Amino acid sequence: MLSIPPNIPWLGVILATASAFLLGGIWYGPLFKNVWCREAGIDPNGKPDKHPAQVFTVAIACAFLAALMFSVMMPSSATAVDGLGLGFVVGLFFVAMSFGVNYAFAGRSLKLWMIDAGYHIIQFILYGVIIGALN
């Protein structure tokens, strides 16, 4: 059974959570907003279906839980370099490949998958580097 160890680097978890939002603001903003919206079938200038507070609350909770469980997976002796490697593996082989299955069955484009997968690969690399540096 997975138990949460008492020595969680809470500052690292909080900073990792924040890094997901910083990255997302850049990734889904100036870098890929128009392409992502086009591929997702969303009007980039349209009104969102849900209130932004709801969306951000869910996103913060999900990013926090992912960062927390990522920190539990990392050995307490892990460094930022170790975290980079683990983050790459988790982002690419767990998250991106899982998205790949869903996107294939949903008929979503390769371009959309690459944008979303790329975000999550870098997200988990950042988690690993930040948490590893603060271990």
Structural write-up:
The structure is a single chain. The chain has 135 residues and is mainly α. The protein has one domain (10-133). The protein has 5 helices and no strands. Helix 1 (10-31) packs across helix 3, helix 2 (33-40) packs across helix 5 (110-133) and helix 4 runs antiparallel to helix 5. The protein starts with 9 loop residues before the first helix and ends with a helix. The relative contact order is 0.20.
**Largest sheet entry:** none
Q: State the order of secondary-structure elements, H for helix, E for strand.
A: HHHHH
- The backbone outline, from C-alpha atoms, is globular
- The chain-level mean pLDDT equals 94
Low-confidence stretches: none
Portion of residues within helices: over 70%
How would you summarize what this structure contains?
This protein is mostly helical. Helix content is 76%, strand content 0%.
Keywords, separated by commas or semicolons:
135 residues, mainly alpha
List the helices and strands and how they pair.
Elements: H1 10-31, H2 33-40, H3 52-73, H4 80-106, H5 110-133
Helix pairs in contact: 1-3, 1-5, 2-5, 4-5
